[in-house]
Write a structure and sequence with these properties.
alpha/beta, about 30% strand, Rossmann fold, 9 helices, five-stranded antiparallel sheet, about 300 residues
Length: about 300
């Protein structure tokens, strides 16, 4: 089973480590491996520490944390050989690193197959002057982001968050912008439901993530989909979506699953493995801001994608 990667970027002092600390301390049963530039920067509560060996700190909640020493791909390979294997990998970049370089490294075919890059999170200090976005490194960190998290809101004045959101919008960044109070970010955005592992039930109503701003809606079908109709449907849904992820068969390629991802206004399709037995042939999870997309509207749009005749 591939292990998704969450890449955390952001300028020096933006609050990346606070976000990673919060993720590890509130893993909610997920086995997360964190790769960080400096172990000393990670401040996990003492009661979570289980032990340390070979440059890896084990946490009592099943997570681990290791320092980035040498080649990133070698470090990832070491993590992927662990037993049990992590369910997610979080990589915290240096504050002066251009994340585009790291993204290129993660496109290595071997790593991409075993540990695909799923989400890029850019952490930004809410008090950052909007003029700072003229800096090339700031712009590079924003451009690759699927999600931008505004941090240190308690230290910024009342209008800082609004000004920063306007400045980000002026950069034409398609990422979802969220507040990250004390490093907390809605987990549904960072860790979308793992549809490859288990079927997504057809629920009568939405299931809400930890923060009330977003809700998760699922759609399933026992029938293959028409790819042209699906492309039209995603075009209609895109303005209302924060994230989406799913697996489905198409009538054009029966018996072959396609992996669908939608983030930061971009939709991607990739070939998957053969369909598993006992699960719906098509299952997609959608995340939208609360009240923006109804279950009835979603079902109507997606049901029209089912191939007929």
């Amino acid at each position: 089973m591939p292990v998704p990667i969450l890449l955390v970027t952001g300028f020096l002092g933006a609050g990346k480590t606070t976000v990673v600390n919060h993720l590890l301390a509130h893993a909610q049963g997920r086995r997360i491996a964190a790769i960080v530039n400096d172990f000393g920067a990670i401040n996990i509560d003492a009661e979570l520490i289980a032990g340390a060996s070979d440059g890896v700190v084990s946490l009592a909640n099943g997570c681990i944390c290791c320092s980035l020493e040498g080649d990133l791909l070698r470090t990832l390979s070491t993590l992927l050989r662990r037993d049990p294997k992590p369910e997610y990998i979080v990589i915290e970049t240096s504050g002066v690193a251009d994340p585009a370089d790291i993204v290129r490294n993660l496109m290595d075919p071997v790593i991409l197959r075993e540990a695909p890059l799923e989400t890029v999170l850019c952490v930004m200090d809410a008090a950052t002057p909007p003029s700072a976005l003229d800096d090339a490194l700031h712009r590079s960190q924003l451009r690759v982001a699927d999600i931008v998290a505004l941090s240190k809101l308690d230290l910024a004045d009342e209008g800082a968050s609004v000004r920063m959101r306007e400045a980000i919008r002026a950069q034409r960044v398609p990422a979802v912008v969220v507040d990250a109070k004390h490093g907390a970010i809605p987990s549904a955005l960072l860790f979308p439901a793992h549809v490859a592992r288990e079927p997504v039930p057809r629920a009568p109503g939405p299931k809400r993530p930890a923060e009330d701003r977003f809700e998760t809606l699922s759609w399933t079908s026992e029938q293959p989909l028409s790819l042209p109709r699906l492309q039209q449907a995603i075009g209609r849904l895109a303005p209302k979506l924060a994230r989406a992820k799913g697996l489905f068969e198409t009538v054009e390629q029966p018996g072959r699953q396609m992996v669908f991802q939608f983030a930061a206004g971009r939709a991607t399709l990739a070939p998957g493995d053969a369909s598993a037995a006992g699960v719906p042939r098509s299952r997609i999870v959608f995340i939208a801001e609360l009240g923006v997309l109804s279950k009835a509207e979603l079902d109507a749009i997606m049901d029209a994608c089912v191939a007929t005749g």
